[in-house]
Known about the structure:
It is built from one helix and 13 strands. By secondary structure, the protein is mainly β. Strands 1-2-3-5-6-7-8-9-10-11-12-13 form a twelve-stranded antiparallel beta barrel.
Amino acid sequence: xFKKLFIFVLFYCLVQSNAIAQSLPSxxxxxxxxxxxxxxxxxxxxxxxxxxxxxxxxxxRQVLTTPTVLWKYGINKKFELRxxxxxxxxxxxxxxxxxxxxxxxxxxxxxxxxKGIIPKTSFIGHITTATMGSEKLQTKYIAPSFRFTMxxxxxxxxxxxxxxxxxxxxxxxxxxxxxxxxxxxxxxxxLGMYTELYGFKTAYxxxxxxxxxxxxxxxxxxxxxxxxxxxRLTDNGPKNYISLGLSYRFxxxx
Length: 254
């Protein structure tokens, strides 16, 4: 059933996209890397960024997200609303649980345009609910997160982007600091790639550093596919992951 649904969504997006005027720049994503982009979803457009992830946490535990979807809606040229849904399957040895992660709501607002050494910069804020999800995945507290996302244009085929921020897990009061650093390359007009270093640091544990990379393929101006994967650089993070993604935008009003 999942394969049939996937094929239907893919076909629908391809057909619908051909009917949309290509007056906007190509779709810009917050996936597949961990670095969120500073670009705002066009006004009156909905953008859905979906991913299908397999994360090998350890030799005995695997977490599947099928799918994770970031929904975005452009309010104006400087502000978008965001909504995240994740269906998670957690397998540990012979135990298996599938449930909906607590829903996340948020926004992105543009702060600065790129000028000289000043990067294009936006701010992202999220609140993950404590109880709006499957009971086994609920937390004691709501979990806020924020990050500044910045990007420099190095050339017409290369960009350098990075994020700095913090997040809370809803279980304890301590925050986790986040950093990302990614380099994106345009290999052709449609094919892109990236490499990335990112990590997390809490007050009570050593830093968790990771590396990933991947490719994107622009099917048309409003529809893009991606594949990515990564692994840990320190022994306190998940072993590795692989992800496939499809993202699409469409206009909902004039």
